[in-house]
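Form 12-C: Joint structure prediction
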Amino acid sequence: GEDVEQSLFLSVREGDSSVINCTYTDSSSTYLYWYKQEPGAGLQLLTYIFSNMDMKQDQRLTVLLNKKDKHLSLRIADTQTGDSAIYFCAESIRGGGFKTIFGAGTRLFVKA
Amino acid sequence: GAVVSQHPSRVICKSGTSVKIECRSLDFQATTMFWYRQFPKQSLMLMATSNEGSKATYEQGVEKDKFLINHASLTLSTLTVTSAHPEDSSFYICSALRRDVNEQFFGPGTRLTVL
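Section 2 - Result
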């Protein structure tokens, strides 16, 4: 079946790095995504990675993909209080149109 | 980027009434839009895929007669919650697929409260 799992809560100090982890089950995933959701708002796409890549860096964000273990991580360098939000891991399924399966979200709390 | 709007952002209605939520892609055409439901502190659950000019595809367990979806134009999809009940209270989020960049753009969400 299709399932995406992630830890529910992460607390870090301002200036430290944050690492949010995610595991998925569908080996036919084509794209893997990280979205950010601030309170009461919709989702903002932060970054994505193709399933045939193992790393992608975009400014303070680094995505690592271990396809063998079906493990995805998002590292935020120099975490700021404005990074406090819920971060969703998601995968799109080959053959499912553009169907996207979301994890439950990791709530990141940044302490000043 | 691309902009997707939803209207209304918040709605409170009485039990038994119907509520329509609009999702618009403002600066691109979207043949495919998606409707999600999000319960507090939970993930997004895909309800249905809305295809312009054809019937929506509903996910398992979603009642198509309760959640009516219409995608009559390339920039507008509507979700109507019919005969709403308190258990329908939730945050409804739409997204529009922009095929030239192969990316979904999300609306800001609509919070529905059924009294």
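Section 3 - Comments
Chain A is about 0% helix and 60% strand. Residues 11 and 109 of chain A are 5 Å apart (CA to CA).
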